[in-house]
Write a structure and sequence with these properties.
alpha/beta, globular, about 40% helix
């Protein structure tokens, strides 16, 4: 709408961010991925990427005690902190979830990326403000279902309760309910298979 106002009658074409199919060749079982990372927890959820305010990580951390009330899970927080890490560590301590959080504060090379995604059950994208995200398509490249906020163009990409879960922004309870719903009522392998079928919809060829 902003572009229309700026350009008048110019023809505007909208394209969805493609899936990073360069990672499609990464073949590793969930068990092997977890062994490589030194993890053995049965249930693992992943937050991946640069940690910045609009990414909404505090809401995911606040969701963790609610999830733990139903299931034992491990939260992987993987990515560089681009703001004060102390407030996140303080929140983790205040909620007493240190034992269920693995924090990896560093840049992750492409070669190391598959293990984190393939070793996880769900990728959580708790954004509070966004138009789109390459991380969503990175999760889909590894056929991992997501829990994400229903903002930006996410509802156009994620089929609720089919390839992921759409929740309200800034809602720890919404995130927790979606994670519990996934573990109680959904088959992760079936969701992954559905994501693979959908990948053609996000082909790079569509950018031409």
């Amino acid at each position: 709408e902003i572009l229309k106002a700026l350009t008048g009658k110019s023809r505007i074409t909208v394209r969805v961010h493609p899936t990073y199919d360069v990672f499609a060749a990464a073949v590793m079982s969930k068990t092997s991925a977890r062994e490589k990372l030194g993890l053995s927890d049965e249930k693992i959820i992943l937050f991946f990427g640069l940690v910045r305010g609009y990414k909404g990580l505090p809401y995911l951390i606040r969701a963790l005690p609610l999830i733990l009330a139903r299931f034992k899970v491990r939260l992987l927080i993987v990515g560089e902190f681009w703001e004060d890490k102390k407030r996140y560590l303080r929140l983790i301590r205040e909620l007493d979830v240190q034992q269920q959080v693995t924090l990896i504060d560093r840049y992750v090379r492409n070669e190391d990326m598959p293990g984190y995604f393939l070793g996880s059950d769900l990728v959580i994208l708790p954004y509070t403000s966004v138009t789109g995200s390459g991380l969503l398509q990175l999760a889909f490249a590894f056929a991992r279902p997501v829990v994400t906020t229903a903002i930006g163009n996410f509802p156009e990409i994620v089929e609720d309760k089919k390839t992921g879960f759409l929740v309200a922004p800034r809602s720890a309870k919404g995130i927790a309910d979606a994670v519990v719903d996934f573990y109680e009522n959904y088959d992760g392998e079936e969701m992954s298979a559905r994501i693979k079928k959908e990948q053609g919809r996000f082909s790079w060829d569509h950018l031409l």
